[in-house]
Design goal:
binds magnesium ion; 385 residues; binds adenosine-5'-diphosphate; single chain; Ribosomal Protein S5, domain 2; Alpha-Beta Plaits
């Protein structure tokens, strides 16, 4: 899986040389879960796994795409069909980006068609946002080739619109923002209301630490429904509390909110409000190089998602439990919940042993075999030399 795989697929399927190669990484969220659509704070980082696209402009209005992930057979359409929002399947991600450029003001009647070949080493459906990676790789490529001149925040918005339209999932902006704003060895501290971004140096590698991702391989049929349900509960609660979004509720306001909300809705609100506070505390802790304090915030975040937001599953709880028992600095489920991945921060030398211990615990409990791998904070989306 190198950039050559995308270029190779391009030559094989479309002939000739691409105009260039672009890449965009997946992401892992360190802390701040379900806060993005509540106008709150998140702290993801772009990972060292990415989607790479080889793209060449055409002289007509045709658009052809091919992916090593999908067997390489090209999907073909035209800019006009895309403008009418006619696309489905995996092609909805790159075509959705084209559509979103149009919605954001690019005149799709005036740009050239293109051929695009993609190769990715972001595992699909593991909660590392392979979807944002393919969207943002497409977005940075077209931004350059069509000379749109959109800045990174505008590109993140375009990717998010593609995701919302392509999948119909009302996701927030975190994944796309992490993919474009990522920097080597830093986390992306994002205010999802203003889209203000601050890169927070992490220094994990220098400190001898590793971030281990454990993909539980659990995919719940109700993941999309569960996400939607939580989102609606948050929006309803904000209305009942008379605020624009739950970001506007402070930790000190929680006792008052408890009087006004039913117990389940209150627990949802409590998670969001305390999670926003945990993100701010995490940024302060990381800036002070206090990884122990950050680790405790990770554990607290997991407990909040398990008990108050109720989006964890026994497999995710098992990863966190085993991590805690083996002395990891911090651990929590990451992503939308109802399956997917958990992360653990720990001394790099202990990472393999923790992966083995989690696998053993999963076998004991009759769970599917998990997959574990390390990720490091990497550079965000851009053109390859
Ligand atoms: P994730 O957590 O990985 O983002 P999603 O369900 O949001 O999971 O997105 C995965 C989908 O994105 C895939 O099913 C596929 O449609 C699309 N996708 C991601 N990467 C690629 C790729 N390299 N080639 C083709 N489609 C891809
Ligand atoms: Mg996704």
């Amino acid at each position: 899986m190198t950039e050559d795989a995308a270029a190779g697929l391009f030559r094989e399927r479309f002939g000739g040389e691409p105009d260039g190669l672009w890449r965009a990484p997946g992401r892992v969220n360190l802390i701040g879960e379900h806060t993005d659509y509540n106008d709150g704070y998140v702290l993801p980082f772009a990972i060292d796994r990415a989607s790479r696209v080889a793209v060449g402009l055409r002289d007509d209005r045709r658009v052809r795409i091919a992916s090593t992930f999908e067997g390489g057979d090209p999907v073909e359409t035209t800019l006009d069909e895309i403008a009418e929002r006619r696309f489905s399947g995996w092609s909805a991600y790159p075509f959705g980006v084209v559509w979103a450029f149009g919605e954001a003001g690019t005149d799709l009647a005036a740009v050239r068609g293109f051929d695009l070949a993609v190769d990715s080493d972001v595992p699909v459906g593991a909660g590392l946002s392979s979807s944002a990676a393919i969207e943002m790789a497409t977005a940075v490529a077209l931004n350059d080739l069509w000379a749109v001149g959109a800045d990174r925040a505008a590109l993140a918005r375009i990717g998010r619109r593609a995701e919302n339209v392509a999948v119909g999932a009302p996701t927030g902006i975190m994944d796309q923002a992490a993919s474009v704003f990522g920097e080597t060895d830093a986390a992306v501290f994002l205010d999802c209301r203003s889209l203000a971004v601050e890169q927070v140096p992490l220094g994990f590698t220098a400190a001898g630490l590793a971030l281990l991702v454990v993909d539980t391989k659990v995919e719940h049929a109700h993941a999309t429904g569960g996400y939607r349900d939580r989102r609606e509960a948050c929006e309803r609660a904000a209305k009942e509390l008379g605020v624009r979004a739950l970001r506007d509720v402070a930790v000190e306001d929680l006792p008052g909110a408890e009087q006004r909300l039913d117990p389940v809705t209150f627990r949802r609100v409590k998670h969001i409000v305390t999670e926003d506070a945990r993100v701010l505390e995490s940024v302060a802790a990381l800036k002070a190089h206090d990884t122990a304090a950050f680790g405790e915030l990770m554990y607290a975040s997991h407990a909040s998602m398990r008990d108050d937001f109720e989006i964890s599953v026994p497999e995710l709880d098992t990863v966190v439990e085993v991590a805690r028992a083996r002395g990891a600095i911090g651990a929590r489920m990451t992503g939308g919940g109802f399956g997917g991945s958990a992360i653990a921060l720990l001394p790099a030398d202990d990472a393999d042993a923790l992966a083995d211990a989690v696998a053993a615990a999963f076998a004991d409990r009759g769970y599917r075999e998990p997959a574990a791998f390390r990720v490091t904070p990497a550079q965000g989306a851009g053109r390859l030399p």
